[in-house]
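Example 3.
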Amino acid sequence: MIVRQLRDIEGTEQEVVTPNWISRRLLLKHDGMGFSLHETTILPGTETSIWYRHHLEAVYCIEGEGEVELVPGGEIHQIVPGVMYALDRHDRHLLRAKTTMRLVCVFNPPLTGREVHDEEGVYPLVEDHVQADAPVPG
Ligand code: 9YT
């Protein structure tokens, strides 16, 4: 069994701090669960362009208020505590926080923890580490 507390993750490599959000990764790929589980704090007044082309993400709001806008299309959904949105079609979107939001996020495939958003808000698919001295197949 794995038991972790958010406060144990703060200030470690499992915490990623960006200008718009802070993500604390409770479970990552190496934990072997098949998904990763994060608590993400979205800073108030921010707008983040996100497009997870290689991942599916479900987001459950537990605190704060904001909205997601689908791009293109312009469909807007209000996000408040108790609302979940799932990016089941790798939906490109804008995430806007009116107040500080606390979101519980699940990624499939799981993040390794080394990914960073590129200029389009995409996380790359990070493959497993290949041993440098591994025999070359064939
Ligand atoms: C809601 C969202 O996707 N925010 C960006 C950060 C992401 N949740 C993460 O890496 O934890």
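Residues 128-138 have pLDDT under 50 and may be disordered. The chain has one helix and ten strands.
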